[in-house]
Design goal:
40% of the residues lie in helices and 12% in strands. With 186 residues, the chain is of the alpha/beta class. It has a single domain (5-185), classed as Rossmann fold. The longest helix is centred in the first third of the chain and has 14 residues, at 38-51. It holds the Pfam family Methyltransf_15.
Length: 186
């Protein structure tokens, strides 16, 4: 009864987003439609671990409510989770507490590109950069082919050019309707 009508369809899937939803998971309005479903986050974490089993540091560049970071923390020694919005960051920290991995995640509030520059200055080697960048909200569903140059606030070219200076291992979570030619061009 306290869920806004426009979010009700997401609320109905709450246990697919976080299986421990009833244990105190926190989501702000945007995270209801932005968080990676838990089963997908588990699969991505396991895949990245299989590809890079010796990786020590994984960065979750747009951590949101922390769904991916939580799963990375199950497998990788060090997870650095970056989020620019303080309310969303508070949700991520709470969710990491719910899943018992808050001590394995270093949460950094700030712009992902500025934080990555700071990590380089600190001589921190980033083995993998994972990012589920903002797509501009659920309106992407209305496009048969999603133009990755229209992502807000950062387009694919900007994200990739910045990340590729930090690590050769980049994993981007993008809409399934993404323009494959734009990805191939990078």
């Amino acid at each position: 009864h306290d869920i806004p009508e426009k979010l009700y369809r997401y609320w109905k899937t709450r246990y697919s987003l976080f299986s421990l939803y009833d244990s105190g998971v926190a989501l702000n309005e945007e995270q209801w439609f932005s968080v990676t479903p838990e089963a997908v986050a588990v699969s991505v974490a396991e895949y990245l671990y299989e590809c890079q089993p010796d990786a020590q540091v994984i960065v979750d560049g747009f951590c949101g409510a922390g769904g991916n970071s939580i799963q990375f923390a199950r497998l990788f020694p060090r997870v650095i989770s970056i989020e620019i919005d303080p309310v969303t960051m508070a949700c991520a920290k709470q969710n990491a507490r719910v899943y018992g991995v808050e001590d394995k995640i270093e949460f950094i509030l700030g712009d992902v590109f500025e934080v990555l520059k700071s990590l380089i200055k600190q001589d921190i080697k980033v083995d993998i950069i994972y990012a589920s960048p903002p797509w501009g909200g659920p309106s992407y569903l209305n496009q048969s082919v999603f133009d990755l140059s229209q992502m807000v606030p950062y387009d694919l070219q900007h994200i990739y050019s910045q990340f590729s200076c930090i690590s050769k291992n980049i994993c981007l979570f993008l809409p399934k309707s993404s323009d494959l030619q734009q990805i191939a061009d990078l």
